């Protein structure tokens, strides 16, 4: 199926995706807990807590996308007809959508607080 020289790297990639799934699930749970605290009425009046709530939502979406991507890779990896690096047309479209939305949510969680800070504090 794969060359003998590539098997250690492929096994490492396969096993590290399990770790990524576990860490992503932990991240989603912790972000849900943070978000549930940040939406309390007393905290919704402060811009800092609103920033943190938006970052928490973006992290939840980004980690969900990461879990979906890793699980689909784990499932495809065990398929005997899967050729690493080559996808069908719809597989390529799916990978592009995953890349777009992952980058989108990472950008929002990085740049949203900076943009709002400039608007609120005129920096």
TrEMBL record:
Keywords of the record: Membrane, Transmembrane, Transmembrane helix
UniProt cross-references to Pfam families, sorted A to Z: 7TM_GPCR_Srw (PF10324)
Molecular function via GO: G protein-coupled peptide receptor activity
Gene3D superfamilies assigned to the protein according to its UniProt record, in alphabetical order: Rhodopsin 7-helix transmembrane proteins (1.20.1070.10)
Protein's organism: Caenorhabditis briggsae
Domain of life, per lineage: Eukaryota
InterPro entries from the UniProt entry: 7TM_GPCR_serpentine_rcpt_Srw
Name this polypeptide is given: Protein CBG18573
TM helices/strands, residue ranges: 18-39, 48-68, 88-112
Keyword Transmembrane: yes
């Amino acid at each position: 199926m794969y060359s003998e020289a590539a098997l250690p790297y492929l096994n490492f990639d396969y096993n590290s995706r399990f770790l990524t799934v576990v860490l992503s699930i932990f991240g989603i749970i912790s972000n849900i807990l943070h978000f549930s605290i940040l939406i309390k009425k007393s905290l919704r009046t402060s811009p800092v807590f609103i920033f943190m709530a938006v970052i928490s939502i973006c992290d939840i979406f980004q980690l969900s996308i990461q879990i979906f991507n890793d699980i689909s890779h784990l499932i495809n990896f065990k398929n005997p007809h899967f050729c690493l690096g080559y996808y069908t047309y719809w597989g390529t479209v799916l990978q592009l959508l995953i890349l777009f939305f992952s980058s989108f949510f990472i950008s929002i969680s990085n740049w949203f607080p900076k943009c709002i800070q400039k608007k609120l504090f005129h920096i």
